[in-house]
Amino acid sequence: MHGLTTCGEHEVAHAPSHAMVEVNSQDFEMNDAADVMPDTDISRMIHELSSENEHEVSAAAEFLFERAHTSHIKSFQNKEQMRMEGAIPSLVRVLTCPMSEARYNACSALSELAFQNKNNCLAILNTPGALESLTKLMSMREEVHQGDACLVINNCAAFCSEFCFRIAMQPGLVESLKTLATQGCFDSRNVAVGALNCLSRCERAREVLLKQRVVEDALVPVLQEQGAGDKFEARLSRAAMALANLVGDDSSCVLGEEQYRHILANTVRILGFASEGRSWAGIHFAPYGVLYPFRKLASNPSIHPYIVECGMVESLARCIKDRARFEASDATLELALMVTKSLLEHVEHHPLLRQAGMIRMMRQIKTDICVSEECKQIASEIMEKLLEGHLAVWTGQHARLGAQSPLHLLDEFITGIILDYAFENH
User: In this structure, what DSSP letter does residue 161 have?
Assistant: First the structure.
């Protein structure tokens, strides 16, 4: 058995510390990978996957896992080579190998290949028999297969969201996730809830999950569990996020008010770690995945004071400022702006939003050629709200005295420069 642990959008527990840093596959160009000489050992091990000796097959799958792992200095290039040389179909065939250890190592390799690599996710999902074999492994009694097979599904759903509907439509797959989420071992429950959370972000998959009673049979029972520890708290938060994605209701309908607030606080805390690129409880969360449920949760003004108190404004500011660092950066920005706009309903939050630098950032977004028109429109609305009320930068903005002020004659370009200086730190 290998000593590393597979990585997912969420799970990176027990991986070496330098493997915990989030790696964005968009940071690498395909041309860079093409310029690297192929690793002959990888080519040889891909060939070994077709060996009639099951021990050789198992060792080859384990080797490929280790070379694909994010802790490896050439992880991205290695993953590209493996896909281009046909490792994925060979690993999928190993999922049906009679040898248990070979199946385990194949799951580990596939989950690692899928981690933060959309092309590999597509290759796995397009390989005949892949979803069928993974569903079967999740249904087996061997716990080691359940968790690792589930992690392949989790990563494919996380990094290839447009295929979530196909994943959800695989016969028996959602039922297996429901069973693992409520009856599996501790680690399998964590991964299964994470996979359901990833699937719940897809609108087409949403209908499938609702029809298969994911809310009643999995999410509500998970939210009613008793336990302790960061990983347990993370599972509850993911279940609450999935519930919000699916039905839009807050979790207070199945929890007491105190426990619901506790879960909300942890979810805001998770966004804080995600916005800083850090893991929590051995888990990486993409800011997009945490902001997605908040687009519905934040429509309820009653939770605004509490999530602001827990640090929501600061986390939103980081998501907006550092958006280029994250997966799905455009979608992340749009969600962050939508949640920020919803917080404007409480005037008492405006000073906090200004202190976080929102006015300056909204001005930058409005002039950023890489930002969509939709985001620019939301940014304009946020900025207009934050500049309303008793906040006057100069006399020209005063309702009564402004018409008499020479500053009223300044054009938008000049006033923009003045605003930049006025709100340099806001």
Answer: G
